[in-house]
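quick one, 119 residues, struct below
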Amino acid sequence: MGWFGDLWSKIKNTASNWYNAAKDTVSNVWNKVSPYVRAIPLVGDKIATGLETVAGAVDKGATGIAKTVTGDIMGGVADLRGAYNTGKEGINKLTNLKQGGMVMNPYRVPQKHHNMFQK
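---
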């Protein structure tokens, strides 16, 4: 492979180091913020769980990309599929909170929509 192989290894290692540094930073911040989010009445734990699920999906996706780049196509595709499903699950957890009325004021009575062109 020669110089191209050396260059490719340097690119992969640099990208991996940057990703791990970013992941560690975000993880450290989340560990400090998480107790406050979980303390929110009714929804805090659900919000934290949804965010952690989405973060897990991002991590699985990065692992899948790394496997694909290193030549493990089947393992990479499996990880990317798992990342997609996990991310979808996390997003559903977060959006279900809003749809269930738990994030918005549960005492608000929805107003009927009146068509302004009705006579």
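The helical segments are 2-38, 44-69, 73-99.
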